Amino acid sequence: MMTDFPKLTYAVSLGFDVLSSEKLISVQESFSEITGNFYLMENSVPPHLTLGMFHADESELDEIKTVFSDFASQAGSNFSVGVSGLDGFSNRVVFLRLTDVDHRLNHLNEKLHRDFLVHFESGGNFRYLPENWFPHVSVAVKLNRRQYEIASSASIDIPDFLNADSLTLFQCRPYIKLIESKLT
Which helix (H) or strand (E) segment is 99 a member of? Predict the structure, then answer.
């Protein structure tokens, strides 16, 4: 079916309370300063944990918002996740490894794919599918080889835990917050 609207990429992300967000921004700024890579800061990417991505026509925005609101209303209450250290992948991204002791993160990711994303086209990133998903919070992205080496050997203080308090629907590139729903 032909459409007059281009497909856009959207993400559903878990957000953090003010104190956790401040700690994450401090970690991101530290990595930016030591690597010279300011991508997260320059693109106003807020601290978040991506639960899933999808593509949809701009014309579907009302449906997206409705389905997101239904999903978010059933997501449950605030919760904390542990941070078990720093790690990286693809020699381009440094992230905080999270512990999901009570499986809340995995449950939200599975629920998102089962109840929400079935309505839209896959985001094309297999890393967000429940069977491949690895909960993490990126603190440095789009690093070149040298920046990644610097970041990987850096000694940066990281928080012990983060308090999740919201779900957000974003349009990606540019990052635009469309809806934020507080966890109850």
Answer: strand 93-99
Hey, how many other C-beta atoms are within 10 angstroms of the C-beta on 166? 17
Lowest average pLDDT, out of 34-48, 71-85, 123-137, 144-158, goes to 123-137
Residue 171: phi and psi, rounded to 5, are: -90, 135
| C-alpha pair distances (Å), 65 with each of 70, 73, 152 | 9, 12, 38
CA distances from 120 to 44, 68, 154, 167 (A): 26, 11, 40, 18
Phi and psi for 151 in degrees, rounded to 5?
A: -65, -40
Backbone angles phi, psi at 177, to 5 degrees: -75, 120
Q: Whole-prediction pTM value?
A: 0.89
pLDDT at 4: 57
